[in-house]
Write a structure and sequence with these properties.
- InterPro entries: Puta_zinc/iron-chelating_dom.
- Pfam families: CxxCxxCC (PF03692).
- This is Zinc-or iron-chelating domain-containing protein.
- The N terminus and C terminus are likely disordered.
- With 136 residues, the chain is α+β, with helices and mostly antiparallel strands.
- The chain has a domain of 88 residues.
- It has 4 helices and 5 strands.
């Protein structure tokens, strides 16, 4: 008798797997299909905003420029958080579609650096799964 295939849904943390060392080595980058909120410092590290602009320009103006360039989808002024734009597939704009690896790994945002241990809808858990079903 076959065991049922576990379906992982990035929008349903109750389907996620508890994080363990080495989990990312065999992952299909499911976390890279979730909306990604970043701070201004992350945008500077990614090269989307230069340090002079970050220091001298109003956040709303920066957000307006980034939205026009389709680099962000949303700006939350209250919390000073930018939501990075994603591809039509739902993938992060910095995810290589072929290798499913981050193309800006060394410059990746803090949210990515701390996922899933600290920054996650369910800290300590990950939307890992070879048979993952993501919304696209």
């Amino acid at each position: 008798m076959r065991s049922p295939i576990a379906i992982v849904d990035v929008d349903r943390p109750d389907t996620w797997t508890r994080y363990r060392a080495g989990l990312c080595a065999t992952c299909a980058a499911n976390c890279c299909t979730m909306p990604l909120e970043v701070q201004l410092s992350d945008l500077v590290r990614l090269g989307l905003v230069d340090a002079f602009e970050a220091e001298h320009e109003a956040l709303r103006r920066i957000a307006k420029r980034l939205e026009k360039a389709r680099l962000i989808d949303h700006f939350n002024h209250k919390h000073a958080l930018f939501t990075l734009a994603r591809r039509a597939s739902g993938d992060c704009q910095f995810l290589d579609a072929q290798t499913r690896r981050c193309t800006v790994y060394d410059q990746r945002p803090d949210t990515c650096r701390l996922h899933p241990q600290k920054k996650s809808p369910k800290p300590g858990w990950c939307p890992y799964g070879a048979q993952a079903q993501t919304r696209r």
